[in-house]
Amino acid sequence: xxxxxxxxxxxxxxxxxxxxxxxxxxxxxxxxxxxxxxxxxxxxxxxxxxxxxxxxxxxxxxxxxxxxxxxxxxxxxxx
Length: 79
Hints:
Low-confidence stretches: none
Mean pLDDT: 81
Radius of gyration: 13 Å
Strand content: over 45%
Structural class: mainly beta
Number of helices: 0
């Protein structure tokens, strides 16, 4: 399990306030959490420095429902 630090509550008008969790490896999550601090609801996971890994809906720390998954390094493919 990655060690992390839970930061700031931001009230967005949604049913749950947004929170930020920062991991030791530089990754961080901004979004809704449940009462056990699991990713639940809408949120965005970043690799680091605003580089998005996934943005969308979560349930129990897993992608759930509609969302977008991004590669860390951009690769162009020619056919």
